[in-house]
Design brief:
The protein contains eight helices and 29 strands. The protein is of the alpha+beta class. The chain has four domains: 72 residues, Glutaredoxin (3-Layer(aba) Sandwich), CATH 3.40.30.10; 89 residues, no CATH class; 145 residues, Jelly Rolls; 163 residues, Jelly Rolls, CATH 2.60.120.230. A hairpin with a 2-residue loop joins strand 4 and strand 5.
Length: 524
């Protein structure tokens, strides 16, 4: 492995892309150059079924003494930026571009955060300049999935002027400008984004994740040992290993059931080390695994974390209710990456400081298919169906306000929309609409103004799934029927809602999946 900072190796081989393969024989004669295989047919466009392993074929022909049948192919990837662009220009990096990157990009594109590369320096920005222009113009970055609905607090959108500025800079050769024009470096919180938590919870030891097998869901029991009831104003999850942790969900356990399940898993005899390990048998450490959920009925929840989820305080004076002595059970969803990995994720709790607090209330709307009464959880998406519909509804049994909304689907998800229909039968109002669903970027959307939900109102979710070979995210090739379930290769449709009911005594939002009798009578 060579860090080619001066481009000497790249220049000697006339390399143009990353990745690009070069094969030299024992006499240093170039025998093959180009792509590794045809996994991608264009920039960021993945082939559903790669057929050509060009590099492997070339190597096989060389070691067997045959001429390379295809000595050159076109590599697909990131272009290598060479040279030093001009210093002067109407738009320069230090004067116009860096302020945009600081305010719009560096939150994620900095060391240790979710962005796959950093945009902190001029050289880093130049290396990605073509992508900066393209992704900004198509509004794929910054990642903001809603295309319709209410206004949100955490909206991330470039203005038309900012997009034009970035394009002008790239088209002019990405001039640097004068470093003296640069704004002061943006200060980011180190460690906890919301400051020092009032309580930090973590597992007793690292969890070891085996290299191969299906995804695994591990539940970790995190005792709070609180001597009194608390209200949690904010929750911040700090992933220990972002390479394998896909998301977490936090549940409240005041019965001790989680501890019993963890103790049972701890006392289970390990496999004989001399045996051939089946997928998952390398999983070791604290916690326990169950087929679905956390193995018992939780007594509440504390939100969770997924890529894109940024910690945020609940409305002033409100919090999630956390009873004294309760445990928090953290369900962690792990992807395997072919290596033995370790993770120890931490949870930071920030308590409400005001003497009187209200419980922040939640509800879940499920989508399904068919005419099942109640929660329509279960469905099967047939193989080959490009637009399979799923829907669900909730009815308000008393007045409330919605503050947040989070849609959730898996890899086959394509579109999802949530609407609110008033009790008088007026036109439906869009709360959030996502036309290009991305399983790898999910977040909670916080309304700028609370959404008033009157008694008798109806909330609806409508979602569509693509289970065809045309869907590059389809986990199966060829496509197969996909059922409801919690694994990544299963599917689901949920909408998580947060808010406050007018009736402060309620522990949950007054929303039911069964149509109230008054609404049925009115319909008749």
């Amino acid at each position: 492995m060579l860090k080619d900072a001066a481009y000497k190796g790249a220049d000697a081989l006339h390399a143009e892309m990353t990745p690009e393969a070069f094969v030299l024989d024992g006499n240093f004669i170039l025998r093959y150059r180009g792509r590794i295989d045809n996994s991608f047919y264009a920039r960021l466009k993945r082939n559903q079924k790669p057929l050509n392993e060009d590099l492997r074929q070339a190597l096989g022909e060389i070691v067997s003494g045959r001429p390379v049948s295809v000595p050159a192919t076109t590599a697909v990837g990131c272009s290598i930026q060479r040279g030093t662009p001009s210093v002067a220009g109407s738009v320069t990096f230090y004067r116009e571009v860096l302020p945009i990157l600081q305010s719009r990009c560096q939150t994620c594109h900095r060391p240790g955060e979710v962005g796959p590369f950093s945009l902190m320096t001029y050289r880093q920005a130049v290396n990605w300049s073509a992508d900066i222009k393209s992704f900004a113009q198509t509004r794929r970055m910054p990642p903001w999935k809603p295309v319709d609905g209410r206004d949100f607090h955490n909206e991330r959108k470039l203005t038309d002027k900012e997009i034009a500025t970035l394009a002008t800079w790239v088209d002019a050769g990405s001039p640097a400008g004068d470093p003296k024009d640069a704004p002061p470096p943006r200060e980011f919180p180190q460690g906890w984004q919301l400051g020092t938590p009032d309580m930090v919870l973590t597992a007793t030891d690292d969890f070891q994740l085996g290299p191969t097998g299906s995804d695994t869901f591990r539940c970790f029991v995190l005792p709070t040992n609180l001597p009194e009831d608390k209200y949690v104003a904010a929750v911040e999850v700090r992933p220990g290993n972002r390479r394998v942790l896909h998301h977490t969900l936090l549940f409240i356990d005041r019965t001790g059931q989680g501890r019993k399940l963890e103790e049972r898993a701890k006392n289970k005899a390990p496999s004989d080390p001399s045996e051939t390990h089946a997928p998952g048998e390398f999983d070791r450490g604290p916690g326990y695994s169950v087929a679905m959920g956390i193995g018992f009925q939780a007594q509440g929840g504390l939100s969770g974390w997924a890529p894109g989820q940024m910690p945020r305080y609940l409305p002033e004076g409100t919090g999630y209710f956390l009873p004294k002595g309760a445990d928090i059970v953290m369900q962690a969803h792990y992807h395997r990456d072919g290596r033995l990995e370790k993770d120890r994720t931490s949870v930071g709790l920030f308590f409400v400081k005001t003497p009187k607090a209200r419980q922040f209330q939640t509800a879940v709307m499920a989508g399904g298919s068919g005419s099942r009464v109640g929660i329509p959880l279960f469905f099967v998406i047939p193989a080959g169906n490009e637009r399979f519909p799923v829907k669900g509804s909730l009815w308000a049994t008393s007045d409330c306000n919605l503050y947040s909304i989070m849609p959730h689907m898996h890899l086959l998800g394509k579109e999802i929309e949530v609407t609110l229909t008033p009790p008088d039968g007026g036109p439906a109002q869009k709360l959030v609409a996502i036309k290009e669903w991305d399983y790898n970027w999910q977040e909670t959307y916080w309304f700028k103004e609370p959404v008033r939900v009157k008694t008798g109102s109806r909330l609806d979710v409508a979602a569509f799934y693509d289970n065809s070979a045309k869907n590059p995210n389809n986990p199966f090739d060829p496509p197969r029927a996909v059922r409801f379930g919690e694994y990544t290769t299963n599917e689901m449709c949920f909408v998580f809602l947060g808010g406050l009911a007018d009736d402060a005594s309620l522990r949950r939002l007054p929303l039911t999946p069964r149509e109230p009798k008054m609404a049925q009578a009115k319909a008749k």
